[in-house]
Backbone:
């Protein structure tokens, strides 16, 4: 068994928003079963006191899981 993460879809989609003054949230999907190509996703979130901290954490987490990059989607 290897300690290296298995490649995922390549891109993790996330949205960043300020939820209250000085509090930022990134929302992204978390795969229930990454081995299954039709795996369902569950919502996940990271919160911090700066947008830069949220983005850094999500991007490092995604890289550690084997994603190539994070696509920051517009909030609708």
Residues:
């Amino acid at each position: 068994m290897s300690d290296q993460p298995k490649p995922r879809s390549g891109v993790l989609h996330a949205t960043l928003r300020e939820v209250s003054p000085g509090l930022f949230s990134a929302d992204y999907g978390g795969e229930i079963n990454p081995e299954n190509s039709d795996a369902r996703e569950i919502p996940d979130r990271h919160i911090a006191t700066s947008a830069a901290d949220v983005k850094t954490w999500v991007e490092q987490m995604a890289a550690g899981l084997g994603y190539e990059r994070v696509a920051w989607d517009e909030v609708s």
User: Anything to note?
Assistant: The chain has one domain: 11-73. The helical segments are 51-64.
